């Protein structure tokens, strides 16, 4: 009734969610288009995992192994198990015990299976946490700046308040976190979540040292917020310095842990896990956060594909709940790529080739898929097109990942899906482009 009345009186309505406009241009779409337009260009743009290691042909074997295990463990008929997998199912997931075993073995995180949710990737996990915990008016989510667009872009279109805090060689600026919290407190607002990617951050490739992880936990106690820890790259460690996830040292249950399996296995599996072992005070009663998240999930994606969950658990069963052996070759390959990339950068962007006050520098990521290049030049979108067309190499301007101003003199290179040959050619081309920028600046 009111719906019709509103149309009849000729009010102006937004044709779409107005917040969608806040996203501005679709920068990732722009990069995809550039890659399609210049197929001969070497692309360091996207952090896609290498398809060679997907092992997708084993999909059915893993599924069947999971079914067999369920038949034996549950003393059920095979048909009943298979039928159950085809049904609507628990919002929290059906492989939580297997994932708990994996988390304990590979990541030293002890989690009760009931505190775990199996989600449709980290993307859904981020949405569920915000939808469950955050008030759009009062609450603020601190994010690293620059950061993964999955969190920032979701928050923008869903109307959540974000506060950027600079991320550097040692992860998020902890003094900046504290100052931001105090600033919002003075305005009567609450920082409820601090989203961090402590391991081989996307986009910078930087990691948070152990000492900073502990201080962030202390801040969470002091200022009463949750750390939203996103781990998508933890196992891609190349220097043997393995830091425990913050969740593994989270005595006071301050961390909501997001574990993506998109890079660990393959993105099409669309699987991630949330570990949420917190209790929330609701109307004087303690309620498990995992139950509230499950309630939200019931009205967003209902449940995560049980078929994909079964495949993942089938692999975990075969591997005795550790993915280290499955990923050994892949990690060694990526480590080699990082080494080749660093060697090519040292060769083609050597300090002797650029004036001392115009030097090109880069970080040395201890793992992951990304590296940051610092240049003395402003790098625009037009530069990306020019570089792809004339120099046949594609990179991502770091500014694409900033919420605030920044990154206009930095590039992100992803080395996860390029060959040794492409790395050498690509970096020599990038060097030629940067020499062009140098000449143009004079
Ligand atoms: C920081 C970070 N988190 C999560 C993901 C993966 O998300 P999903 O599990 O939704 O594929 C990525 C992929 O690029 C990422 O960089």
From TrEMBL:
Taxonomic superkingdom: Bacteria
InterPro entries registered for this protein in UniProt: Aminotransferase_I/II_large (IPR004839), Class-I_PLP-dep_aminotransf (IPR050859), PyrdxlP-dep_Trfase (IPR015424), PyrdxlP-dep_Trfase_major (IPR015421), PyrdxlP-dep_Trfase_small (IPR015422)
Cofactor(s) this protein cannot do without: pyridoxal 5'-phosphate
Statement: the UniProt record of this protein carries the keyword Ribosomal protein: no
GO molecular function annotations of the record: transaminase activity
Keywords, in A-Z order: Aminotransferase, Pyridoxal phosphate, Transferase
Manganese listed as a keyword: no
Aminotransferase class I/classII large domain boundaries: 95-430
Protein name: PLP-dependent aminotransferase family protein
Organism field: Chitinophaga nivalis
